[in-house]
Structures are given as structure tokens and as C-alpha cells.
Amino acid sequence: GEALAARKAEAIALYDDIGILRGLSAWRWVDRVQSHAQVLILYTPASTPAPLGQALVDYVFSELIRVGSLQVIEVRVRDESPGVRDAWLRHGVVVFARWQMSRPLGVVPLPILPVRDGYTLAPWQAERQTEIEQVAAAAYRDSVEGIAVPDPQGSRAVENLRKLCADPGGWNADASLMVMDKRSSAVGYVAVLKAGHEAQIEDLAVHPSHRRRGLARVLLVRAMTIAQRQKQSAVTLSVTARNPVCALYNQLGFQPVHCGEVAIWWRDGRHMSWRE
């Protein structure tokens, strides 16, 4: 309501020919240049005929793609709205599941892992921030997260890291780590936040040229070990279900505690390689 009043969001209501409300949609622009549209809600009651739900989707989609600067549409999916999901799929979206995962600490022992030869672990160093941001940008571009968590300008991962490090109340400096190669260049990191009595893995990344060497596993386990020493009760994180790193999370005992779906459409079609 506040977003609509401040003209930061737009909305449309769908009525049938006798004036009964049959659907509602609201969307907003995430950025000022209007490259990223986020459909906050597109809902029709269960009693609504599917063609009306499809018509609502068609209208919203046509309104958004008319904006020349649009690059990506992000939709929060609700399966109970008749005709809506099929209509989005007809327009070429790809649906991604997003998981919130949790792993209790102090119940199952954590493995003790060596660091691969040629690499060393180090505490997060502010003077290495530029190197870390370069790793973040490269890892994001090469990941399903870059499709399912839209960032048209390619700067969100870097900006998020800067905000995290600047928040002394939330930043877990002891558990946030870097991995360095033999030239002492940062090639991976884990960024950890304090979330009450839990440690939240906000970001875990390894440069694409240094993957498949067990670096993400070592970073994550070491961060979890530090969190356990801090008397944290659990470690939590969010991830796209189709991200290969989910195999690592499963092996280390993480379990999904919440699952949602997001539908993604990129004007340049980059999402289509993930269509099932």
C-alpha cells in the first residue's frame, strides 16, 4: 500500500462483466533505469476461470515489455491462481525454486578438511576488498544465481559485499574468510552474518578458474567451525535449487526449511538455457 501511494509500484485489478473482482496484480521497478521489473503479486481466486488469469498475465507482460529499457522480469509464483502459471510459461519464463536451508551446529561433528596444496585460508581482509569484489563479479556471471537472482547492471553482488562489511552489528568478521592462491591473490571467499543465535552464510564464491578443487567446501566448513565455537546454534543460507553447490550443502547436512518459486524472463533469452 505504501509503495503504491508513493508511486513506487503499479497495480491493476481485474473485474468480470458483472463487477466482481477476479484478479489483482502489482509490480515495481527495482532500479531507476527500469531494467528490472519485479511482479510482487499476480493473484486470482480459485473460483476464477483460467482464461481470466491468463488475460491478467498477458496484460501485465505486455505492459512491461513495452518499456524499452526492460531487461528482466522477476515474478513470485503462486500455483493456486488458475491459468496464471501456464500463461507465464507461455510467455517463455523459466521457473526456479529458491531454498532457505539450515544446518544445526553441535549435533553432528564437522569434518576436518585440509586446504589443497597451493592455497591458503586467511581472515577477511579489508585491504583485499577489490580482489574479493572481482571474484564476486566473476562467480556471479558464471552461476545460475546470475539468472535466477537478477542483476541487470552486474553490480549487486559487489554492492552487497560492501554493505555487509560496513555493518559492524551484523558482520561476522571472525567467520568470514578468504582463500588465496600461491600468488597471494584472493580467489574465493565466504561472507558470514550474525543473525541472532545463528550464523547466516550470505555469500560463498570461488573464481571460476579455481573451481573443482574443494575450496568452497573448505571455506564453508571452516566458517561453520568458527560459528560453532561462537556458540551459534545453526548455520543458514539461501540458494537456487538448481545450483550445483546444493550437492555440497546436502553432503554437509543442510536441509531445506522453506521453498519458494520465482519465474524469470530475460529479454536477451539467457534464461532459456535453464529451461527444463
What topology does this entry show?
Blueprint: H1 2-5, E1 9-15, E2 21-29, E3 36-43, H2 50-65, E4 72-76, H3 84-90, E5 94-104, E6 120-123, H4 129-141, H5 145-148, H6 156-165, E7 177-180, E8 186-195, E9 198-206, H7 215-229, E10 234-240, H8 246-251, E11 255-266
Structure description:
With 276 residues, this protein is an alpha+beta fold. It folds into 2 domains: 2-91, Gcn5-related N-acetyltransferase (GNAT) (Aminopeptidase); 101-257, 3-Layer(aba) Sandwich (Aminopeptidase), CATH 3.40.630.30. Helix content is 27%, strand content 31%. It has 8 helices and 11 strands. The chain has helices spanning 2-5, 50-65, 84-90, 129-141, 145-148, 156-165, 215-229, 246-251, and strands at 9-15, 21-29, 36-43, 72-76, 94-104, 120-123, 177-180, 186-195, 198-206, 234-240, 255-266. An 11-stranded mixed sheet has the order 1-2-3-4-11-5-10-9-8-7-6. Helix 2 packs across helix 3 (84-90) and helix 4 (129-141) packs antiparallel against helix 6 (156-165). The longest helix is centred in the first third of the chain and has 16 residues, at 50-65.
Categorize the overall geometry: elongated
CATH topology of the largest domain: Aminopeptidase
Rg (C-alpha, Å): 21 Å
- Write down the CATH class of the largest domain: Alpha Beta
Summarize the structure.
The chain is α+β, with helices and mostly antiparallel strands. The chain contains 8 helices and 11 strands. Helix 2 packs across helix 3 and helix 4 runs antiparallel to helix 6.
